[in-house]
Amino acid sequence: MSKGVVRCPKCGSQLVPDDKGRAFCVACGKEYYVCLECLKAGRTDYESFVFSSVRALAGHMRSHRFSKDNRALENAFSIVGAVLSSPMNREAERMLSIAKKLSGCLASTNTECLLVALSLAQLVVLTRIYFKLEEVELLLRTTAPLHLRGEARSNLVVDDEVSASIDLPSFVRGNPWVEVLSGRRG
Amino acid sequence: MSLSVLSEDWLPPRLRYREAKVQELRELAVEGAVIVGPSGVGKSTLVRMALPEAITIDCGSARTAASIAARISMAMGLRSRRLGDVLRELRERPPHTIVLDDYTLARRNRSTVSLVRVLANYHRLVLVVHPHALNSPGVFGTVLRMPPYTPRELQGILEDRVVEGELPVSEEAIAAVSSALGSPQGPGSARLALTVLREALRLCLRSGDREVTPKHVAQALALLGLGVSPVFSGSHKKLCTLL
Asked: How far is B87 from chain A (nearest CA, A)?
């Protein structure tokens, strides 16, 4: 796996860790445990990631798990953030920031982190739909009376025509006085 | 047969070839001292023998100022655990002898140096360091040097352990280990010599042989990457000239 070389934090001689991160210092006669994540990242402050006990390395690895999960979450949030780039979603963004804080407490593993991120993305999309629907509703509420008035008038005309053609008695049909009398109304 | 005599934790009844250093350290520790020497030359054993009542902190496992302070606090029975509070309490307490073993492995930043200064000013501080860290910040006090072991000294130490543990090791095997690792050809480390002997014993038991021979020693040296001994040529010779 990694054939990187690190320096012994005590004497400074070269250590070649094996696949599990164990390295034997031929000068000190001591076994050291190297963090392979840090080695891959190219760190050179050997004191910080070369340990003399497995327990110390285990403690150090916990910090890696946290940072890896955080990175995965940040990526997920950046994708969601791109979706949310329109300015109308200020409310949704506020929700997202709250959810971000919450996910820090909820997620303990990488898979959980991704699940939380996905759920948040869904939540955000649903929020967007909700706000769109609210906008449509508001638009309808403001413009509906005007439409209704126009519709009513046209319906009235149609009704007149229909009634003129169907419902009127025979003595009214085609009577020129009907038009004269209707002109005197109102 | 007792294999515990080859472990690092085993404390020999006397520090062979370094008996004078035990008394020297007892005298120096009153004012504070720095024990300097390469790995496996008996620095930690010297401290354990000369200052058995001292509070010893292993900086290999407690590397930061906060963790060192917490351990000192626990050993002294202080109530506070936070660095600042411990520093304040340490100033008020009667002087203790505190040993920071493997101080080379500690993160020698500003807070560690301030902790070391408080310990040096208000208590009796003994630092155990590798020669590389002698000039690093926070290392001050009268220097007590521990030179690497010669082949003859290593042979004596190994013989003592073999007799004590009733181990099936031949004299030739002991001679092979000590000539390969004794200073100035090798690092002069007793720890390394014991590791090689332990590995050779393991190989011997696995192959079903009656006792450890130079053949097992050669195999153990090769297995541990000491066969060609590239490291001894450069840094260790430089170290030996320093000491």
From this structure: 24
